[in-house]
Amino acid sequence: MDFQYPSALHHRHEGEAYLPGSGAWILQQSEFVAWWSSPTSPLLWLHRFPSCGKTKLVHIVVQKLLGEDRQLIDYFYCARNPAEPQHSRPAKVVAGLLRQLAVTRNGILREPVAKACQSRLQTVELDRSGISSLSPLTLAESVPLVLAILENEPSVLVIDAVDECDLLRRHELLSDLRGNYG
After folding, report:
1. Of 49, 70, 126, 160, which one's alpha carbon is 20 to 30 angstroms from that of 42?
2. pTM of the predicted structure, to 2 decimals
């Protein structure tokens, strides 16, 4: 069985109910074509009112990017859902992107992540049973790793529904990524 990242499972779920060809018009829009053909434009922002189908359009864009195989594509679907709070926390959004970026297509851990893992493992303390538990990376720890990978590996980051991120913490995600990548 193939392991799939939570983002990949969410992406597959988003595409299950689509009619073939629905929403394909987005790929013909001048804004999309200009963004797609520009090697220097890091931002494509799909904006509209809530519940108008933006996530479906994002799914189509991600599918297009995945089919091209010309660069890395990393994506995360935010959601304001009390049952899945990890889909609205900026640290979890960046961790989801990092999880996808951390490993090469050949299954090799990228150097910045490997170094960070070694560093964290050196500071681990074992409990009585000999088992240690590492706390998840914070936003402040994850962003530099994502940026270090992006320096050497051109990538497209797709984040759907940023407006559904935790309202009090959304600025952290936007300022860290835009200030360092955008």
Report:
1. 49
2. 0.77
